[in-house]
Amino acid sequence: MQPSGNNGISNHPGAYRAREGLAYLFIDFNAYFAGVEQHDNPALRGRPVIVAPLASEHTSAIAASYEARPFGIKRGTKISEARELCPDIAVLPARHDRYVQVHKLLMKEIERHLPLEKVYSIDEAAFRLSRSERDPQKAIETARRIKAGISENVGPALRSSIGLAPSRLLAKLAAERVKPDGLTVLELADLPNSLRNIPLTDIPGVGNGVAARLARAGIGDFVSLWNLEPKHARAIWGSVQGERFWYQLHGFEVDEPPTKKSMIGHSRVLSREHETPAEARIVARALLLKAASRLRHYGFFASSLSLSIRLRPDGGWQGGRRVAYSQDSSCFLKSLDEMWESFLRHRRRETTSGRIGGVTVYLHGLAKAGDAAASQLDLFAEPAVKQNEGRRAELWRLIDEINSDPLAKFRRLGAPKGEDAAPAHRHIMLASQVGLDLNYLGAKIAFSRVPEEAEFLY
Ligand SMILES: [Mg+2]
Predict the structure, then answer these.
(1) Fewest Cβ atoms closer than 10 Å to its Cβ: which of 44, 84, 417, 439?
(2) How confident is the model at residue 401 (pLDDT cuts 50, 70, 90)?
């Protein structure tokens, strides 16, 4: 069936591309962070490995190698519990910079075979097959060449599951079928049968909210979801999103809205004059303020932050803190300062005089207001705390606005009497940031902001 105006999509801005064989290859790296650790350290290969977001026993694994899974350890298992289940387990703190580096190597390798269509997260991406590559036999050959290329040119520890299908959504569902190391073809002729047993919430685009609405409409399994009409899907979703979903599920490709983020952060290499702890702390605080400003810009709340410090000539320190969901820079700065104190204590204990070579600050555990996760804030916080938090976040948004366009507020409020020209640069900074001009820093210090694509889902 071809989409047409009478399906109610005529005024939809998204472009629907016709179905033509296996047009997409979706690749999902298996236990990616753990895989990178095993890639970098061959002694870890074949061993149970988990990666923790922070160097703390009170966090949960953000990746578990396949060798850890027979012990009942998976992503989300508490670190202390994992140690009980498998005393021999290797627990490694996350190294986001490294995961981004390897991600780039992997994408470059796959791009030798196919053009990249879209990066979904640090360990998931979709590639497009040309018209002549879309029949199953050719598509499978291409997928095998990609796997061999990754193994030979990047590393055999980086295993992946590949899905081939007419749309990206179906290709992702195909990739999910066999883990680790899968290669699965999903053709329209196989549907809805081959997916008849998958829980609806396993399908990207069907969260708990949508699943509840589907259930109220009597749709509880894949086959009845498949048999919906696009208009009906739109009504159930309560938005055009339902129709977009229907088309993707039925093998049409649809242009997507921007993807969700789950980490926002900045990293900076320090020049000589900033390599003392006191100077480096100011840079870390400035990076955090920038990250928090972007957090507010995207409308997110963060529930944890992490700090990594690279030492010269080698070594480093990592720390992390959980916070109640927040947009408030003061709250983040407080946690950062606590971490900085831990770092200083560590430094005194180790009696390292190592100079500081770089700092990286990340906000993670992101959610939007109204998300199930963020609403815990509403459940647990004292009303007075919430109100203060909200007021401070509002103040920070105002500061963001003024810093992003120093003239905006001035124009809105009108020029004060006696002044007919707006002041040129009116930035707001914390007292502790005075003397640190971010623009100046940007020009003077080798700047290695983690790129946009690095703000990935776990
Ligand atoms: Mg994965």
Answers:
(1) 417
(2) confident
The answer to whether residues 430 and 395 touch, using CB atoms and an 8 Å cutoff, is no
Q: Please provide the size of the chain in residues.
A: 458
- Cα 78 to Cα 75, 308, 456: the distances in Å are 9, 22, 22
DSSP state of 151: I
Look at residue 253 and tell me whether its pLDDT is greater than 70. Answer: yes
CA of 149 to the centre of ligand 1 (A): 19
Structural domains for the chain: 12-24+103-254 (3.30.70.270), 32-98 (3.40.1170.60), 263-454 (3.30.1490.100)
DSSP 2: -
Annotated catalytic residue within 124, 133, 253, 389:
124
Which residues, in sequence order, are CB contacts of 304 under 8 Å at separation 6+? 53, 54, 320, 321, 322, 323, 363, 364, 365
Q: How far apart, in whole angstroms, are the C-alpha atoms of residue 164 and residue 154?
A: 22
Instruction: Compute, in angstroms, the gap from residue 168 CA to the centroid of ligand 1.
Output: 16
CA distance 192 to 227: 9
Asked if residues 306 and 95 have their Cβ atoms less than 8 Å apart, the reply is no
The structure's pTM equals: 0.57
Q: Which residues, chain by chain, have CB under 5 Å from ion ligand 1?
A: 28, 123
Expressed in angstroms and rounded, the spacing between residue 123 Cα and the centre of ligand 1 is 5
Q: How far is the CA of 372 from the centre of ligand 1 (A)?
A: 23
**Model confidence pLDDT, tens digit, residues 124-155:** 999 999 989 999 999 999 999 999 999 999 99
User: Could you count the other beta carbons within 10 Å of the beta carbon of residue 350?
Assistant: 12
385 vs 207: CA distance, rounded Å: 30
CA of 439 to the centre of ligand 1 (A): 37
